[in-house]
Predict the structure.
Amino acid sequence: MARERNKVSPEVAQRLVDLAREMRQLVYGESGVPKWGTKFSQIESEGMAVGHELARLMMEQSVEDQAGQVPAEALDTGGEVAGLAGTEEMLLETPAGEVEWQQPRGVLKTSRRDFFPSGPSLGRGCG
């Protein structure tokens, strides 16, 4: 039974081929080949561990960098514009593991409450 591969651009696909070769050398030594007799389940486990960590790091870096670039429109609540006032640590459990980042925190001066610009640009409600 053939299974369709994940869809990525040709450029990403080629870089992943190169990255997989490099990761095999880090995991299995200079030859990049597991010791003869290594069970497929072990190879699968090691490959999934590397893949999940890559996915987790990509998500974590993406939301952290995105959170550092809050556009002005994200601070507009429709009635009041929030001012940035620091950050709050966020933690999200994903299939690849915990993703942690500093979420920008805004303050609404008139209503005297915290405001978190959590639209799609900061990782919530993305779809």
Notes: Confidence is low (pLDDT under 50) at residues 120-127. Helices lie at 10-28, 40-67.
